[in-house]
Design a protein that fits this description.
By secondary structure, the protein is mostly beta strands. About 0% of the residues lie in helices and about 55% in strands. The protein contains no helices and 23 strands. The relative contact order is 0.08.
Length: about 280
């Protein structure tokens, strides 16, 4: 299907949450929709589509310091969305996924803590189950969430106190009552713009991220732990790696990212274990 993008309109007077709904593969004439304009809203938005392509968006309400969620009632215009406050303690660096039953799960940074909110239904998040995943060292920046084959959340994120890249493995799919955390990379300033994907067959986590002005890729030694991760520098030609986004396909890791030095959008394709191709 065509792409749908949630975004923060920083140029508007009130700072709004918007959607761009593409009408073709080239997105040449997208439908632009104002979702929420009450106060200053829309930063750190993360989007998921239901099985019938209705957008759900998690985002920050800066005016009220809330984590909010918007549920669109249709797939093509989002004319009358439903809103919920998910966490009144705030929520930044959100990452949203839908469970195997279609219920939203969102990871986020709140009050110097990495949290997870499990929504109670597919179309509302008024009474979520909120779990503290990690509270050591102000963790949760750049959170990136995936669900394993059993629906259990795995989160990559930066612990800002030590500027480390970390990963958390939940022990269940609905409460994350006893998560396991591990440090993936503690060299320099690691873990910004983390992008997590799980290998389709092995379930092993792979994380692209920005560390010390480089694009890096790390992968864990198993699907349920990260005691001996492998860390590889993918691109170090200048200041590169911000806004990294990772996909895995056919034995390769494909990463888009920003080249700050040359103000370019870049693409790197790493064929395991060591062959890397970069393209402007």
């Amino acid at each position: 299907g065509a792409a749908v993008v949630s975004y923060y309109d920083a140029g508007s007077l009130q700072r709004d949450l918007k959607l761009a709904i593409c009408n073709n593969a080239a997105c040449s004439s997208p439908t632009l929709v104002l979702i929420d304009s009450t106060g200053q809203v829309g930063r750190y938005s993360s989007l998921a589509l239901t099985s019938d392509n209705k957008p759900i968006v998690a985002y920050t309400d800066d005016t009220n310091t809330d984590l909010k969620m918007a549920f669109c009632n249709d797939a093509s215009a989002c004319a009358s969305p439903t809103f919920n406050v998910v966490d009144s303690a705030g929520g930044q660096h959100t990452s949203l996924k839908l469970s195997n039953t279609g219920k939203p799960i969102v990871s986020y940074f709140s009050a110097s803590t990495l949290k997870l909110a499990f929504c109670e239904a597919t179309t509302t998040c008024a009474s979520p189950t909120v779990a503290t995943v990690d509270s050591s060292g102000s963790p949760g920046f750049f959170s990136s969430l995936q669900l394993d084959a059993a629906g259990k959340p795995i989160i990559a994120y930066q612990e800002t106190g030590g500027a480390d890249l970390k990963i958390a493995f939940c022990d269940d799919a609905t409460t994350c009552a006893s998560p396991t955390t591990a440090t993936v990379d503690s060299t320099g300033n690691a873990g910004q713009y983390a992008s997590l994907q799980l290998h389709a067959s092995s379930g092993i986590p792979y994380i692209a991220y920005y560390g010390d002005s480089k694009l890096k890729l790390a992968w864990c030694d198993s699907a349920t732990a990260c005691t001996a991760p492998t860390v590889e520098t993918v691109d170090s030609s200048g200041d590169v790696g911000q806004y990294s986004s990772l996909q895995l396909a056919d034995g390769t890791a494909v990463m888009s990212y920003r080249d700050v030095t040359n103000t370019n959008l870049m693409l790197a394709v790493l064929t395991f274990p060591t062959t890397t191709t970069t393209t402007t």
